[in-house]
């Protein structure tokens, strides 16, 4: 039935589905039944205008673009602007493209092919993925190294269809020398160029280590993480922007209690 409407010149898939549902609705009403009695998509048009766009699609196509949003384009660095321009060009020219990469996407690929009734990758839709493969791998419960690697998108048959861009400039650490050094350290680890001890150990630089001597070492760790605690203790963002990670929940509770004690002492003296 949907193919019949396509032959009539209704090329938009949403409108074809709407027209089919409307015809089914009329047939069911002749037998004193309704669409609500069946597990079908909701009818999104009125009887008087079956060719109107679905309300959801209409609202998505009419989202206002503010001056503030447009101004952010100028804040993009050279690499980001290149990617932005290419993505917008693909969308405006309705050119199928899969840009960036992020995890396993075979399920999304199959779903969009079914929805769009198109065998092109991702149903011919422009898909933008992004992720740092060096730091983030898919989670495979009790999986071996081989199983984890095989679950990445780089091992997928979809990879050959990807148009890949590299964003090498970290905007968040642009003016922070310490963060830049840490970023470069992680990149060297990911690229396999960082010096190792044997084949499987990496020496952490001394400037990233607070050595353990006694319980006072925890206070040193807390002070290095929250150096302005005495003046910023009422600013919630000061705590959400920093974090101390540990291997066990009991260690988390212990460190949190120490920080709370410090917080209470500061609050009592202000």
Automatic annotation (TrEMBL):
Q: Which GO terms describe its molecular function?
A: 5'-3' DNA helicase activity; ATP binding; hydrolase activity
All residue ranges annotated as the DNA helicase Pif1-like DEAD-box helicase domain in the record: 106-195
Cofactor(s) needed by this chain: Mg(2+)
Q: Tell me its EC number(s), please.
A: 5.6.2.3
The record lists the catalysed reaction(s) as: ATP + H2O = ADP + phosphate + H(+)
Q: A Gene Ontology biological process annotation? A: DNA recombination
The UniProt entry, under InterPro entries, shows:
DNA_helicase_pif1-like_DEAD, P-loop_NTPase
**Alphabetic keyword roster:** ATP-binding, DNA damage, DNA recombination, DNA repair, Helicase, Hydrolase, Nucleotide-binding
Family recorded in the similarity comment: Belongs to the helicase family.
Q: What is this protein called?
A: ATP-dependent DNA helicase
Q: Which organism is it from?
A: Racocetra fulgida
């Amino acid at each position: 039935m949907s193919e019949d409407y396509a032959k009539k010149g209704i090329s938009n898939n949403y409108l074809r589905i709407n027209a089919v549902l409307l015809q089914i609705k009329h047939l069911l009403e002749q037998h004193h039944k309704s669409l609500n009695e069946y597990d079908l998509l909701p009818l999104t048009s009125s009887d008087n205008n079956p060719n109107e766009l679905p309300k959801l699609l209409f609202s998505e196509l009419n989202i206002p673009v503010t001056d503030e949003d447009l101004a952010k384009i100028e804040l993009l660095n050279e690499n980001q602007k290149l990617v932005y321009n290419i993505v917008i060009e693909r969308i405006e020219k309705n050119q199928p493209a899969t840009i960036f990469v992020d995890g396993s996407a075979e399920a999304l690929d199959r779903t969009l092919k079914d929805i769009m009734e198109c065998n092109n990758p991702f149903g011919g839709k422009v898909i933008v993925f992004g992720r740092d493969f060096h730091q983030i791998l898919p989670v495979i419960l009790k999986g071996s190294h081989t199983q984890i690697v095989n679950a990445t998108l780089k091992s997928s048959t979809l990879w050959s269809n990807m148009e890949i861009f590299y964003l090498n400039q970290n905007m968040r650490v642009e003016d922070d020398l310490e963060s830049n050094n840490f970023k470069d350290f992680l990149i060297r680890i990911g690229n396999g160029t960082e010096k190792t001890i044997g084949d499987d150990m990496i020496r952490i630089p001394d400037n990233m280590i607070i050595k353990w001597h006694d319980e006072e070492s925890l206070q040193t760790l807390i002070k290095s993480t929250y150096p302005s605690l005495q003046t910023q203790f009422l600013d919630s963002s000061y705590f959400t922007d920093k974090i101390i990670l540990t291997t066990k929940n009991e260690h988390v509770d212990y460190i949190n209690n120490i920080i709370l004690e410090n917080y209470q002492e500061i609050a009592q003296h202000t």
